[in-house]
């Protein structure tokens, strides 16, 4: 019996070391970013239950670490590698005449010399600009107590010559503005300038509505952000509405920080399809190897229109100075920064989704609207919920055949969260165990987080050693609150089979009546579960990508009505991606 105990102990130690190794060697990430998002802090925004939310992210590279600020989190995060994020609790609040003014919403974050600056959205003159030279230690003080140049969705920009600028604006009526500031006193230099307005009559992606056909509101313009590259100024902005899958960032280019600017016709960051949709109101930053990245807002909008998450996408500038963001396979595993790279070629790992709409078994179901298939339908808006949050509730996905499993993403949903969860919660955590099986009878543990003490609402684990399995089972150990609910149990790897055939027939039709829009149709591929449509203004600039599931047509409404377009398509299955169809031009 002694040798059995020793063998058992060695096995446990090996398992623990393997799990530790998986965390230490995590070289990939998967959107949405796995942050301990705060619960929405506004009571009357929780009419359908307490839920997490944030938006409007700013990431800056400060002294070699990455600092992330976003809306209403009662603090901020820092990371050495864009993977492990550490939360710092801080309320940027000031009291004036007994009244406490609002916390950060859509904050501006800037760097002046060796100092980090933070400022929140406001229509008053009662907000402070905060400064720190040691934000990792949460050391802050006001730079100026009362900043007279208020405004919603502010942005700070320090030029190479040391001159300092602020941009702001959030409206479906007024433009975005810019002004130079004295970098010591923050007093305005001159008067603010009107910089940019939307032209949805020409640019289809700027139209309001989930299908860009909503006429009861004009499109919103917001989220100004400035990036300088090779002597040019890239003025970024968001539109048309944060509630919609088409939420996107655009960019206009100028020779000076205050314009004039010429618009790039297509969205800069655009992700209307797939599991995590939307890529609007964000910011652009460089990693320690000078690669560009874009962080932006992902739309969820189930419990409330302003229920949102964050995503990070590879970005850059091509040889002609065109700024781009690569969102192709944007919610699949991507490589983290690991040296200089060509973001035109993406950082996608090539690990495919293995369980789209595959058979599911569960321990229980709370109600018909929260059925098991919701966990594998590649929609973050739908979710399965068990009847409780108790230890032992489980969900099991059948991959259909023995496959090579390389990573798993577990996306929790908020169902019956305790009413006291308002704002940032501390000392809450998820615990679970992931099992794999070849036959659904004999199981091995592949991830053990039964002792985890961190809050991981979108947990992503790349296995240190690949596993051959047909079945993956997720067993709940502990929920922070509410029921055990999953919007996406997503298994990545390779199906050990053949890639799909190339799409044989592909049509794009554009009418004279509205040249902002086109109807796209293609012949289905038998063994494909999805398709990527690529489009752009030149054959070598197909920078926008739309992933389409379970369909062989798509209405594309994001075009510049004054320009010709180019399109191609590829088929996707568990084993990889097909050759792309020949590029089609439409005038």
Top keywords for this entry?
587 residues; mainly beta; Jelly Rolls; Tachylectin-2, Chain A; Immunoglobulin-like; 3 domains; eight-stranded antiparallel beta sheet; five-stranded antiparallel beta sheet; 1 helix; 40 strands
Write the layout of secondary structure elements.
Blueprint: H1 2-24, E1 28-29, E2 58-62, E3 65-69, E4 75-79, E5 86-89, E6 95-96, E7 99-100, E8 108-112, E9 115-119, E10 129-134, E11 139-144, E12 155-158, E13 164-168, E14 176-181, E15 188-196, E16 222-229, E17 232-239, E18 248-254, E19 261-263, E20 277-286, E21 292-299, E22 308-317, E23 323-325, E24 334-335, E25 352-353, E26 360-362, E27 384-385, E28 394-412, E29 431-437, E30 443-449, E31 458-478, E32 485-494, E33 506-510, E34 518-522, E35 530-536, E36 544-549, E37 553-556, E38 565-573, E39 576-577, E40 584-586
Antiparallel strand pairs: 1-24, 2-3, 3-4, 4-5, 6-7, 8-9, 9-10, 10-11, 12-13, 13-14, 14-15, 16-17, 17-18, 18-19, 20-21, 21-22, 22-23, 25-32, 26-28, 27-32, 28-31, 28-32, 29-30, 29-31, 33-34, 34-37, 35-36, 35-38, 38-39, 38-40
Give the proportion of residues in helices.
under 10%
Number of DSSP-assigned strands: 40
What is the name of the CATH topology of the largest domain?
Tachylectin-2, Chain A
Q: What is the class of the largest domain in the CATH system? A: Mainly Beta
CATH superfamily of the largest domain: Glycosyl hydrolase domain, family 43
Task: Please work out how many helical segments DSSP would assign.
Answer: 1
Whole-Å distance between the termini? 79 Å
Low-confidence stretches: 1-24
CATH architecture of the largest domain: 5 Propeller
Mean pLDDT: 93
* Percentage of β-strand residues: 35-45%
Number of domains: 3
- Indicate the overall shape: globular
Instruction: Assign the structural class, choosing from mainly alpha, mainly beta, alpha/beta, alpha+beta, or little secondary structure.
Output: mainly beta
Question: Mind telling me the C-alpha Rg?
Answer: 24 Å
Largest sheet: 8 strands, antiparallel
